[in-house]
Every structure is written in structure tokens, then in C-alpha cells.
Specification:
single chain; Aspartate Aminotransferase, domain 1; Trna Endonuclease, Chain: A, domain 1; six-stranded antiparallel beta sheet; alpha+beta; eight-stranded mixed beta sheet; 16 strands
Amino acid sequence: MANIPLLYWRRAKRAGLLTASPFKSEEEFEQTVFETPDVLGDIYLLKRQIRGGSKPGIPDIIGVDADGAVCVIEMKNTNVDAAVIPQVLRYAIWAETNPDSIKALWLEATDRPEGREINWEDYEVRILVIAPSIDRNTVENVTKINYQVDLFEIARWSQGKQSWLLVNKLEPAQSKKVRPVSGLKTYDQSAYESIFNPKSVPGFLKTCRAVQEFCAKNKWPVEGKYNKNYYACKVGNSSVFGVKWIGSRSYALLFKVPEPYARKTRVLSYKMHKYEKQWHEAIFPVTGDSLHLKNFKQFFQTALKQRQ
């Protein structure tokens, strides 16, 4: 009999034994991921809107990330190796050459996230492969194709009626020879000025730097990343807070916190603009030159606790 790995959790001096709880079917695997969208970060999933069936080269699942890239998602409830690459390449080519089909799916969705813009004439395509386990040779092989490819291992563990998802994003080993990857852009001042009002960009970047410094001062273990529409502070693969554009001229602080907490917690001198249910984000517009991040310290800390 094969050994079953064991995982322990600990809380308030209590220890419990977690046991591996494999998904019974690919359908259950997909449904679990759909019901826990945070595991994929900021990707909005068009849930099972298209199924390949007898049509080869058409992906089962399509998503759109915060930068407006179209994501083709392949989920397999089995070990994955490099043989998956030709399959997902066909999906990526279909996504590039069928913008009208993807646009129709996007427009049919009734709960589209606000402020997410897609250039239907020229969008990037991103590939995600999700499986309980992925052969490590696959990681090095996907670096040789000209698409952004993200590999996620997602396994379920349980204890009684409770369950946990263990998410592992695989990254390629550092190589002496670095190849540029199509679709990966650097978002700096000039890039933002080409997308948003140039007069607003310096204030946006100043706010991002202030958040960086505030995190460093408090020794919070976050990593910052500039994206097309927002600056994200992440713990592992999950965003916890950041700064986002909410128009061509305006931007706001965002915090990934529960809605009840966001609505009942007051911030001195600031008012919440809205709560985006799709992404569990509390949005606070930034106006003027003064920014008092210490007033948001409780929001920062609560967002961090959600990911610990």
C-alpha cells in the first residue's frame, strides 16, 4: 500500500491531523476551484462557458485577468507532464484567433468585474495548467514557448468536515540564459502615461512607493508588483492590498478583507468608495497630496491575516 502523506495544522495550542483528500473527479476538482477563486489570484473565470466536445483546440475554461489578458485554463485531476504542452498551445492559438467568441462570452457574463478592460483587437493570451501534481520537467519545458504559462498544483486536505487547499505555484529554476517571454511587459511611468492620464501617473506612483515604505517600516512579508491596472502587494501568490486605477484620472487603495469588516470599520478622514464582491476588495479613493496610511493600519493588518 502506498504511503499517504500527512499534514498537521496547529491553532491556539491545539494540534490536528490532516489527511490527503483527493478529488473524486475532474468535475469536482473544477467546482472546488470555481468556488475558491482566490487560489488563482485576480482571474475572473467564465465558468464552464465553453466545452471542447468534438471541437478540437477549444479550451474548456476561459478567464480574464486584471490586466485584460485572456487566460486559457486546463485542469486535470491527474499527474501532468510535458505532454500537456501541445494541447494548451492549441488552446492559446484558438484564443488568439477567435476574439469574437471570447468577447461574446464576456458580454454574456452577468457578474463581470467593474473596471476590467480588454482590448479585443490586441490582447495577450496567458496559459494556466492546474493539477494535483505536475512533473518538474514540465516547468522547464514551458519556458521554451512564447506564452506566459503558470503551473499550479492544488491538493485538498481534510480533518473531519473541514477541508483545506494546498496551492503550490511552480517556478522555473534560475537559468544563465534568460529568454524574453512574449506578453510580459514592464509597467513604469512611461507605460502608465500611455494608458492613463499623464497628470495622474506621478501621484499613483507616489502612492505605490508610500505603500512600499509603510510595509517595510512595519516589516510585513509582502512582495510588490506593478501590473497594467494596479500595484499589488502579495503574500505568496495571493494579493492582500495595493493601489488600483479606478478611472483614467483617479486611483484608490484596495484591501482584500471580508465585506462585514469593511462596512463596519471606519477610517479617519477617509470613506470607502465601494466594496467589490467579486474580488473581496474594499476600495478607498486617494485624493490630494496628503496620504495618511497609518489611518489604514487596521485594514492592512486584517488583509494580511486573511492570508496567514
